[in-house]
Fold these 3 entries.
Entry 1:
Amino acid sequence: MSSEPPRQPKDLKGLLKFCLEATRDEDAPPLPENPEEVLNSMDSERREWLQEALQGMSVDVIEQLTTGIKILMSSSADLDEKEETLDKLEDWLGNIDMSNNFHKIGGFEALKNCLNTPHASLRTGAAHLVAEICQNNPYCQDKLLQDGFLAILIHQLDQDEDPACRVKALYAISCMCRDFPPALDAFSKQDGWSRVLKSIQSEEPKLRTKACFFVAAVASVDARLVEDLSKMGVVHQLSAILQEPLNITHEHVLNSLLLLAQRSELARSEAQAPELRLEQTLALKLKEVGGKAEYQEVVDHINNLVNICFKDEESADR
């Protein structure tokens, strides 16, 4: 085996042919030997994307990514091969530049293809990869939003019969929306929050935890959304969950409730509603944890909630 470093593509047309070959439909006519006509008709933004990818990737990496894209787009590749490809792509797309280049060579179409497949393992894997690609990456967040991924993921969260698919869909949505206002606004306009509230009510612990994490992340940065969520009844829903026997989701439920109360007078007012009996529920929950060290976060959240929502009432009663 040669020890020489991977060769760089010699020209833009070579990289273009890789991309076209990987992303074309299986029943499409063969590509021309010289795709210069396609190159010449390409808009300047797309041409610039390819030039950037050319500078940043070796032939070996391009071949790996485009081969992966081709497998995911294929109707003849078997399920095991596609699952393995998604796992490999997660390793290959471990940095922001490579994730961006994956979009530039047509990779997002392959992910969309997987999200629309009848195979739950591919829907789960693709949603997970979407989350990993766009996390703290405004470029990919923007392109995923433009390419219609948010609507697909909202549908998966709401309608998919597989619990793991719903969990990964919410993970991807959360990563698309966090610190990216255009996606967060689009999520609100597409009635996404009603699906999050539905997820909070789920008996699937991972889904409830992801939903609470998303609410907490948004509550910490967007006061307007805190008001909207409070009007939708999220405080009532979170308070009702705390009446269940202690379980692993309660730390995240309490954290969400605390952040909402810290950010919104309406949320505090909702928490103080006598019919919720939240103060009594919190007192019972403290007894339930019994001073165990592993529940220290739960204890801290409860004490902070009591201080924010109920201390003034206690002083007035005296």
Note: Residues 55 and 302 are 53 Å apart (CA to CA).
Entry 2:
Amino acid sequence: MAAAGSTEELKAKAQQLQQTVFADSASDAESVKQKEEAVGQLSDTYVMLQDAKALTQLLSQLRPFFGVIPKAKTAKIVRNIIDQIAKIPNSTDIQVAVCKEQVDWAIAEKRTFLRQRIQLRLASLYLATADYQEALKIVGGLLTEVKKLDDKLLLVDIHLLESRVHHALRNQPKSRASLTAARTAANAIYVPISLQAEIDTQSGILHAEERDYKTAYSYFFEAFEQFSALDDTQAVAVLKYMLLCKVMLNEAGDVPAIISSKAGLKYVGQDVDAMRAVAKAYHDRSLKEFQGVLDSYKAQLVDDAIIHTHLTALYGTLLEQNLVRLIEPFSRVEVSHVASLIDLPLATVEQKLSQMILDKKFAGTLDQGAGCLEVFAEPPAAGMYGDAISIMDTLASVVDTLWTRSQHVVAAV
């Protein structure tokens, strides 16, 4: 937020730029160019003032100006101003309202290309606000329309967004199908580096969902290099996903080396520190430390849905490993004692032990009356089935040999 003194200066600058944009009605090439530059500076000034309302009004005030400039430039200015509104914190609702208003205006003015792009932006905002059905409704309409126009680049963006929405709805088959469609459309045209990086990121996310972390890491690595080359802020998130894959692959020891590399040092901060702490806690097999990391870096880990999903699974795995190690020396042990050893609530430990018994992670039973866990010795593997298979193999060999000899006898006769 700007200081009081600088705020007055910015407001004075904004008034001056407004005069440049609106005072002169000239429409020659030089005047139009000056107005375009002034509009860009004015929107930057409003962002510094954190004034989303003024940016919204600016779009409405510029409509007469849009009538005298090419449609392509109009589309660029409108999308840039919407992007500027997005830079202001807690402005999602305003962005949705602005997008709806601009869609209506674009329909009235018959500006199809601009309307499609703004509708796509509106669908992405619905995704961000978890209004998935509205997002799918817009995406479905756009797909039908854009396929007829054969706009491959826009089609890639739509399919990619559709894949993200289905992923958010936990519909992996449809998410993968949409991503495949995006890749197919992208192969037919030149795709900007940033868009290719987004496709690779989504591919990595879907492979990680299937627990194929090795392939996911390779996609995240490609996306990270591309975002890093563009100095895109998304590079930090992708770096986090790379480090997550290393942890999930049980290669937490590689995390410090990646962070201290030339590319990693560029993005050192809270996000990277959070993943470093996760890797250390996992390497130490410390549940208490792991939980402490989740509490300390809530914004970086828990609030990121993708990271949180995998860390939840990782925490469950770590808890199982610790419980198995603790109960190994016992044949009968109080659950409260196990809970005190692992330093977790009794209810949590009891629930996890019950789940592990049902999943056959170990043989045992919970005596809830006595509050004890009884651990049974693993029954010896029955050798009968192996012996039966061996006998069948031998018989098959004998039959084959007899058949071969009978063929020789028949041939001799």
Note: The chain has a mean pLDDT of 87.
Entry 3:
Amino acid sequence: MSVVLGGRLHSVLLRTACTNQLTATRNAHFTFYPETPDPSAGETSKVTLLQSVTDAMDIALTKDPTACVFGEDVAFGGVFRCTVGLREKFGKERVFNTPLCEQGIAGFGIGMAVAGATAIAEIQFADYIFPAFDQLVNEAAKYRYRSGNLFDCGSLTVRATWGAVGHGALYHSQSPESYFAHTPGLKIVIPRSPSKAKGLLLSCIRDKNPCIFFEPKILYRSAVEQVPVKDYELPLGKADVIVEGDDVTLIGWGTQVHVLREVAELAQQKLGVSCEVIDLVSIIPWDRETLFNSVIKTGRCIVSHEAPYTGGFGAELAAAIQENCFLNLEAPVQRVCGHDTPFPHIFEPFYLPDKWRCLEAIKKVTS
């Protein structure tokens, strides 16, 4: 009973919070940097990250008759409105609500994928993905391996909102990517923009491995840019060098990429330091070649993420960079992360790895 009441309560609260999201993002800790699409991509449309996610699912449902979208409240458009119009267009057999049971959502998705369908499951908040943890790490991730490649659930994609939102506090702000990164057999992707979200989500849906697609909810409405209208995919496991530089490599993903872009500008203006900004894009698999080449060039590296410092994925990157780029490093790899506390409410500005904390780290590695 407490699980059901808790689930209903967080749905009601976040429906209210969602209406205030635009107000919250005006005071956000970052500035969104829209990107200009390649002219060869063809016709574009100005959309939010939220709308790009909806468009990706629309395309998947249109082109794949076995594809289904399911989760809490998705038939009504979802708490964040990512599935608006899909039930009306594709019917209640393909877009439907589930009980308030994340373990059941994941287990149902695994079964559907094993049976040959394309399963697109929504976990309303990444903070509530933990009841599904056993299904994802012990079943979905290992299904192919334990059957000797006779069976798999590779056509399963799990979407979940992720990260700070400005008012989410401890149960609606977490970044749990490192928990899943420890599990061979899963792919984990976090987009930074509408154009990336559409292409990466379509890649996840069509990938032959189970994928977890974390969506930065603070970007749902605050991130707006021109996105190609056509069906397209973007590579998983390939990092993007967004800003080239010579002195310090800055690595992030999701919302934090935009923080680091602003930090790079501040470092150039205030310190005369040239920073190379890299969006990791995929947590698993991650692009070793791009990161190592950058650090070998700059000799200094800072990894930044919203998740807590201890055990965050930045630790894995820092260790790998130390192992492979040690002779090229001019300073130890630095991590600028969330603190080792539950995610706070009114103290969120002090918890987040904002541009000023990142700038201090640049001063440290260049002094």
Note: The CA atoms of residues 36 and 203 lie 21 Å apart.
